[in-house]
Design goal:
342 residues; alpha/beta; 9 helices; 15 strands; 27% strand; globular; binds NADP nicotinamide-adenine-dinucleotide phosphate
Length: 342
């Protein structure tokens, strides 16, 4: 049994209209779950908040099912096993899985993956060595298809995915330009991550002109995390044969309808550019290879990462909202508890 009989859990209290707020979430006390055969009880150490969760707040069919009202929210969790009815896990093991926004959650053993706490900090399994890192790896290398000497542009470049994309592009021998939302983030990209240039889209008046300054030869690969006006501008600067990897459209996630505007698709006729959306899950069969290679680059100091860590389960809503208008850098996480097992 768990050391405690109560458990705090976040529920979806209402479906937001526009930007979510405190009313979207409700923190309740529940019993620690009972285990069935094959189940494992996990104590949450770190919870990941991710932009795709905004889509799950809508009652609309998508690649991730909508969350039900008054039911627990879910997300990537690194935790430690408290109790196990599954032969592959024992108390104290560190695991990663998709679990509830809660202090304790039960999961079928098959849905958990063991992680070695001695190989890398546990939090990295939700960031640079986790889903966001793998998204960057496959989205850039398989969809963006960069060649040495290419100019690669990435939006939301200081975030969990974008920061890894830019560094992978640099490793691939490309010139790298990032869009980010503050001078501090832009400086982080150029001074710490080795981007060739960064554009602060909050202060730049004309994104296409800003691109002309830092990428006068045009854009060969665009890794799109945001959509909206940044993407419109990059489309006007694509080179012949350019590749656009459409990873996310975060600038539109809080819109109830997609705004119309000047159409940029004519550029694709002239440039014969390829625009391709992808989901990281499409590459599941190669996840192990990607994680191993990312780990090697991190160990060698070729990929650097930052984490912004909010303290306590109760901070999860604010941490989620920081994805849309915060000053966080790198991967946004919530630290829920310290590890008990050593
Ligand atoms: N296709 C897939 O399989 C897959 C998997 C994972 C993630 N994604 C997508 O990848 C993107 C990045 O995800 P992430 O986890 O790495 O998040 P993140 O970049 O760590 O956080 C989101 C960032 O988006 C930027 N942003 C927010 N609103 C914006 C706006 N209106 N215009 C421009 N930038 C804005 C913010 O940075 P600034 O301060 O720079 O604005 C913010 O830090 C998201 O669109 C996400 O949905 C897709």
């Amino acid at each position: 049994m768990a050391e405690t009989a109560t458990n705090r859990v976040f529920l979806l209290a209402e479906r937001p209209d526009g930007v979510p707020d405190a009313d979207t979430f409700e923190l309740v006390e529940r019993d620690v779950p009972e285990l069935s055969d094959g189940d494992v009880l996990v104590r949450t150490l770190y919870l990941s908040v991710d932009p795709y969760m905004r889509g799950r707040m809508r009652d609309r069919e998508s690649y991730a099912d909508p969350w039900a009202l008054d039911e627990p929210l879910e997300g990537g969790v690194v935790g430690e096993v408290v109790e196990s009815n599954h032969a592959a896990f024992e108390r104290g093991d560190a695991v990663v899985g998709n679990l509830q926004w809660a202090e304790y959650a039960a999961a079928a053993g098959e849905d958990l993956r063991p992680v070695d706490p001695d190989l890398a900090p546990l939090s990295t399994h939700l960031g640079v060595l986790g889903m966001p890192g793998r998204t960057a790896y496959f989205g850039l290398l398989r969809v963006g298809d960069p060649e040495p000497g290419d100019t690669v542009v990435v939006s939301a470049a200081s975030g969990a995915v974008g920061s890894v994309v830019g560094q992978l592009a640099r490793i691939a021998g490309c010139r790298v330009v990032g869009f980010a939302g503050s001078d501090e983030k832009a400086t982080y990209l150029t001074d710490e991550l080795g981007f060739d240039a960064a554009i602060n889209y909050e202060t730049a008046d004309d994104y296409a002109a800003a691109l002309d300054d830092v990428a006068p030869g045009g854009v060969d690969v665009y890794f799109d995390n945001v959509g909206g006006p940044i993407t419109d501008a990059v489309f006007t600067r694509l080179n012949e044969g350019a590749r656009v990897a459409v990873c996310g459209q975060i600038s539109l996630y809080n819109e109830e309808s997609v705004p119309t505007g000047p159409r940029k698709l004519g550029t694709l006729i002239q440039t014969r550019a390829r625009v391709e959306g992808f989901l990281v899950g499409d590459f599941a069969s190669d996840f192990e290879t990607a994680t191993r290679r990312l780990g090697e680059w991190v160990d060698a100091g070729e990929i650097r990462y930052r984490e912004t860590i909010a303290e306590g389960l109760e901070s999860a809503p604010d941490a989620f909202l920081a994805l849309f208008e915060g000053d966080k850098i790198g991967k946004q996480l919530v630290k829920v508890a310290d590890r008990a097992a050593e």
